[in-house]
């Protein structure tokens, strides 16, 4: 590369950008702050060493990762990316516990609905039984003792 189109790394380091500059493809002159952030966290020699050790097809991803880590360190010098990851993991845990709570509330609601339906069916069956029972006792109104026994048995079996 010529000196007029030095990469952001070479410009930041105030050196001549050679034709085989390892940093040039990943730190273009249009974004000098990107290299400045990465340099602050990793250092120029470490960046160069890391990129040279990798196959060419993985270098772009490595430069992106270093850039993301450096930007995270600029926002949170203590935790960097780990702070963001921890926050996201805690958010996942909170949402999962809320989901469990909502599912249990939904199960309770569904059980209550089912119980109401069953009670409604029982109530209608009970009303039919009572009508049949009253109809059968109207023929013999003098047998009150028998009616009380039947009513008591009915209540024990249905309640």
UniProtKB/TrEMBL annotation:
Superkingdom of this protein's organism: Eukaryota
Alphabetic keyword roster: Coiled coil
Record-annotated LOB domain positions: 5-106
Alphabetical list of InterPro entries matching this protein: LOB
Source species: Populus tomentosa (Chinese white poplar)
PROSITE patterns membership: LOB
Pfam families linked: LOB
Keyword set includes Methyltransferase: no
Protein name: LOB domain-containing protein
Family: Belongs to the LOB domain-containing protein family.
Coiled-coil portions: 85-130
């Amino acid at each position: 590369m010529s000196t007029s189109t030095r990469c952001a790394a070479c410009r930041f380091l105030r050196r001549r950008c050679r034709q085989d500059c390892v940093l040039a493809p990943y730190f273009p002159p249009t974004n000098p702050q990107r290299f400045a952030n990465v340099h602050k966290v990793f250092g120029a020699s470490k960046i160069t060493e890391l990129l040279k050790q990798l196959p060419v097809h993985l270098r772009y991803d490595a430069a992106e990762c270093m850039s993301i880590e450096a930007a995270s360190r600029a926002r949170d010098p203590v935790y960097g990316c780990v702070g963001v990851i921890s926050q996201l993991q805690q958010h996942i845990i909170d949402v999962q516990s809320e989901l469990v709570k909502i599912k249990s509330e939904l199960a309770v609601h569904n059980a209550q609905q089912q119980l109401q339906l069953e009670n409604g069916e029982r109530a209608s069956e009970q009303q039919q039984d009572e009508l049949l029972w009253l109809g059968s006792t109207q023929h013999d109104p003098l047998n009150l003792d028998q009616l009380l026994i039947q009513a008591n048995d009915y209540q024990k079996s249905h309640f």
